[in-house]
Design brief:
Layout lengths: L2 E6 L5 E6 L8 E4 L12 E7 H13 L1 H12 L5 E7 L8 H35 L3 H21 L2 H17 L3 H15 L6 H31 L1
Parallel strand pairs: 1-5, 4-5
Antiparallel strand pairs: 1-2, 2-3
InterPro entries: DUF4807
């Protein structure tokens, strides 16, 4: 016959706990499934303890055979009653629950932001690759870069903000707005000198080369148009 008792947590969820024999690897096992306690309140042997005391209770079951034996004998002596452990809030919380909830929310928000940024980077890269051939796609890529900038400002990451500005400068180059793009690239290049990671500086140099090439091709196309008119 399995010896069991019930645990009622602080959310009033009910779990059944079995005391196992010596041959088992673990001295106790909690069956994590919802149960209902039958009978009236008079048929329950209720013990109210807080979570810290409950940890000690489980630890004693796990490590002290005498405690486990006495508990089993006590439960057996209640044939028409249920042994119920009711978890109650402790008078003093050793764990700052409020701060834990704040940190949990911030971590979840950071995960969602990183997930969103990865999607925006993929989407922005796709539109940017088409921006060399279609101006409308370059404009959309620029809007995505602006949205990424807002997220970078929200999380307070200056390196990410700088990269997003460079993404926006690529959109400007594709729209033939060279002076504005030139100013952004120069500002971010100066900022890259203050950053240990050299990838941002290489990114600036690469986009600067694209700016020079695109500006050169733009001038040549304008010359060809003038010649055709003549």
């Amino acid at each position: 016959m399995k010896i069991s008792f019930f645990i009622v947590d602080r959310e009033q969820k009910i779990f059944k706990c079995y005391l196992l024999g010596e041959r088992h690897k673990d001295n106790y096992r909690i069956k994590a499934e919802r149960n209902e306690i039958c009978g009236t309140n008079e048929s329950r042997f209720l013990v109210s303890i807080n979570c810290y005391q409950f940890y000690i209770f489980l630890n004693e079951i796990d490590n002290c055979s005498n405690f486990k034996f006495n508990l089993a004998r006590k439960i057996k002596s209640l044939p028409n009653s249920y042994f119920v452990v009711q978890l109650i809030p402790s008078k003093y919380e050793y764990i700052d629950v409020t701060w834990g909830e704040i940190v949990n929310r911030l971590c979840y928000e950071q995960i969602e932001i990183e997930y969103m940024l990865s999607w925006l980077s993929t989407l922005g890269g796709g539109f940017s690759s088409l921006g060399d051939y279609f101006v409308q796609r370059a404009e959309i890529a620029g809007k995505i870069a602006i949205y990424q900038m807002k997220i970078a400002i929200r999380i307070g990451d200056p390196n990410l903000l700088s990269r997003c500005k460079l993404y926006f400068s690529i959109s400007l180059i594709q729209q033939n707005k060279f002076k504005f793009a030139q100013r952004i690239i120069r500002d971010e290049y100066e900022f890259s000198k203050t950053v240990v990671d050299g990838r941002l500086r290489k990114m600036c140099l690469g986009i600067w080369s694209k700016l020079q090439y695109s500006h050169k091709m733009y001038k040549e196309s304008k010359r060809n148009l003038r010649r055709q008119k003549l």
